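Residues pack. One example:


***
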Amino acid sequence: MKRVRFPVRIKRGSSVVTIYRTPKQGYASFTVVHYDDAGRRCRKTFSDCKGALKSAEELAEKPVAGKPDMRILTGRELLAYARASNAVQGDRNSQDSRQRVLSVVCYRT
């Protein structure tokens, strides 16, 4: 069997999960370290390497459940954006104009 060198880093997209091997009295423990969506460092400790690898794979595959950076339009806001978009079709700075009209419409509702 091939010897595993530690720390092991598992990468999936922009997610990185690290496994450390820590010698204890009489046995080795394996620590899985990752950062959650709030940016906090999380650690889980395992007594066997297989459990640590399985957990690290699952954490690396799981997408971060953060909040989206963009605003999601629903209901009246979406209708107002569509109307503003149609109203400024020929405008040179159409994206800026749409955003201004949308902010005014959303402020009033």
User: Anything to note?
Assistant: The chain is about 35% helix and 25% strand. Confidence is low (pLDDT under 50) at residues 65-69.
